Amino acid sequence: MGTQLTITACLLISSISILVACTQKTSDESSSSGNSDSAVAAKMQYGGYKSQVKWGEHLVQICACNDCHTPKTMGPQGPELDMSLMLSGHPSKMPPPPVDRKIAETKGIASTQTLTGWVGPWGISYAANLTPDESGLGNWTEPQFLKCIREGKWKGLDSTRQLLPPMPWQAYKFMSDDELKAIFAYLKSIPAVNNVVPQAQPPVQR
Ligand code: HEC
Asked: Is the CB of 125 under 6 A from ligand 1?
């Protein structure tokens, strides 16, 4: 009787360990093929992209940040992005659009051919340096970036002025926290470009 019990117990234990071994094998196989639940969840977390930085890059591309924040060279069809200066803002030595400011500020809007410097009813604005250099977003924190885009606050600080046109923060403020954080992570990962963008100017007296 005693021997029988021992044999039954041994059989039970060995079948449990076979079961455990089988289960382990299944989960190993699925993770090596990249389809485990955790791999899928990680992808979903980044909008279908494999990392937060990759998702941020995608968002920056489709939101056209380069249109205003990347200087241009002139090609046969007009301005082309100068990716060696990617997202580094209005070049420090480039003058504002050469227009009569009184006329431009009352009758229309003018921009440099790089689309980085603008004259309008608000005065003159220059697209900011978004690279991780100290002259760009190098010293910014993530909460500053979120405040800047959500509330249109220059430098993302409470005490500062409202952002000027044509920065479309009124559209971008509808991004989710995760989207804004992905953009910030991407901007922190791109090559730093040293470029002190000129100060914005108030409108001329009329
Ligand atoms: C249509 C042109 C335009 C587009 C598109 C644009 N920006 Fe801007 N952006 C500007 C201008 C001009 C300024 C400067 C505004 C000012 O001085 O008040 C600015 C300012 C900023 C600032 C504030 C910098 C500071 O020092 O406070 C941030 C951050 C910024 N943009 C991020 C972005 C991001 C990210 C995108 C894309 C998701 C983007 N911008 C798209 C024109 C643009």
From this structure: yes
